[in-house]
Specification:
Strand content: 25-35%
Low-confidence stretches: 1-21
CATH class: Alpha Beta
Number of helices: 3
CATH superfamily: Mannose-Binding Protein A, subunit A
Number of strands: 7
Protein name: C-type lectin domain-containing protein
Largest sheet: 7 strands, mixed
Organism: Oreochromis niloticus (Nile tilapia)
Mean pLDDT: 79
Pfam families: Lectin_C (PF00059)
CATH architecture: Roll
Domain C-type lectin: 20-144
Keywords: Disulfide bond
Number of domains: 1
Distance between the termini: 28 Å
Length: 153
């Protein structure tokens, strides 16, 4: 039998599986400010949700569907602009820390308010889009536990 065919088949299977991994996200139905939500996530899980790609976005929106607004880990640190709460650069692959899914005309500091934190907007009309919000507002939130799960194709 031609071993090149077997290696090609196995390589294709491995590539296919690699694109099916998603992180484990947990929706917390307690309203907290962004900072308090971050503290909770860091104490119980790993951090507020980091969303690096559309697969992560789908996993988060599945966890927090039709919940209104929920904090995620994106915030404006006023020095380097929008960045994820999980500040470990070794965690991110090329381009992952730059993934954004802003709602139309966001971020916008609506009506001149300082809106330095980001909430996920749920419901079918929003499709998991993000909006900048005042960090002192209280919303539910989504945490991430730092582990991967593997979904089936």
């Amino acid at each position: 039998m031609d071993y090149r065919l077997i290696i090609f088949a196995l390589t294709g299977a491995l590539v296919s599986v690699a694109f099916c991994q998603t992180r484990q996200y947990y929706f917390v139905s307690t309203s907290k400010t962004w900072t308090d939500a971050q503290s909770h996530c860091r104490n119980v899980f790993t951090d507020l949700a980091t969303i690096e790609n559309t697969a992560d976005l789908y996993a988060v929106t599945s966890t927090a569907s039709n919940t209104g607004k929920a904090w995620i880990g994106l915030h404006d640190d006023l020095q380097n602009s929008w960045r994820w709460s999980l500040n470990d650069s070794s965690f991110y692959g090329v381009g992952e820390a730059a993934f954004r899914n802003w709602y139309t005309n966001s971020p916008n500091n609506l009506n001149g308010q300082e809106q330095y934190c980001v909430a996920l907007l749920s419901g079918s009309s929003y499709n998991g889009a993000w909006d900048d919000r005042s960090c002192g507002d209280k919303y539910f939130f989504v945490c991430y536990n730092g582990e991967f799960t593997w979904s089936k194709n």
